Amino acid sequence: MVDIRRSSHTSTSTSAYTAAYTAAYTAAYTAKLFSISPRGNINVLSRREDKVQPTVQDVMTADVVVVHRDTPYTELLGLLHEHRVHSVPVVDDGGILAGLVSEADLLGRKDELVRRQQRRALIILPPRWQHRRVRAKLHITRAQQLMRTDLITVPSDLIVAEAADLLRRTKHKCLLVTNPDGRLLGIVTRSDLPKGPQRPDREICYDVKFSVIDASLGLDATAFDVKVRDGVVTLAGPVVLRSQARAMADLARDVAGVSDVVDHLRCEQDDTHT
């Protein structure tokens, strides 16, 4: 133990005392016996408290698949399916984060074009012609038109426990890790973080039906059979497109409390190679 208290009976010179105090101060600070608050207060740390907590830098995916503002729709869809992810960050030149495009955004754009085409048609066009027109519109759609900018960005030194709590409170699917200049460093999803307290199966089932199927995908939740047992979700029912089935399963995996998803959905058409 280093005693830095000064006795009234010592004749140590001021300079010698200052040097001894500085040495003891430096040794104690280096050993993390105390920390200094922004207000200058010294907070003593016990050895039990002096534990390095994991940060998002320890759990984030650094090798992130990214796209640019002018990336076309078909390339976005291909990247999502190739890398088995349901969202990709959009970056500007230099890697500065601009937005995020999800598979639900792509499906929403496709559904919007289909509805618009049907409203504008004076006669009912054959499905094949409608499909061709929609494909032509999608071909000129870019990430700039699809991306969302209501993102949560965090620094790389954020404590993992705080990141998990942030996702639970905001209901977001992921956190984007950036440096002070806004450059994308990585991405953290719920699967990267420790699971919170186990949720009741009925709450998970409700979220899958009404937050995923109804709100996110715009489908009729009553047309699907959703069962949850011990956090494992089973999806069954008819969907028109294979991409809808993938999006439903991927979004269900991100619901709080879900440990796995079993996909028994029936698809009428495989559009994943469009």
Structural features, described:
This protein has 274 residues and is of the alpha/beta class. It folds into 3 domains: 14-44; 56-192, Roll (CBS-domain); 201-269, 2-Layer Sandwich (Histidine-containing Protein, Chain: A), CATH 3.30.1340. Helices cover 39% and strands 20% of the residues. The protein is built from 9 helices and 10 strands. It has a 3-stranded mixed beta sheet with strand order 5-6-7. The chain has a 3-stranded mixed beta sheet with strand order 8-9-10, with helices on one face. A two-stranded antiparallel sheet has the order 1-2. The protein is flat, with a radius of gyration of 27 Å.
Short description:
This protein is an alpha/beta fold and 274 residues long.
Keywords for this entry:
274 residues; alpha/beta; CBS-domain; Histidine-containing Protein, Chain: A; 3 domains; 3-stranded mixed beta sheet; 9 helices; disordered N terminus
Low-confidence segments, ≥5 residues, pLDDT <50? 1-14, 28-50
Mean pLDDT: 75
Q: Percent of residues in helical segments?
A: 25-40%
Lateral strand order in the biggest sheet? 5-6-7
Number of helices: 9
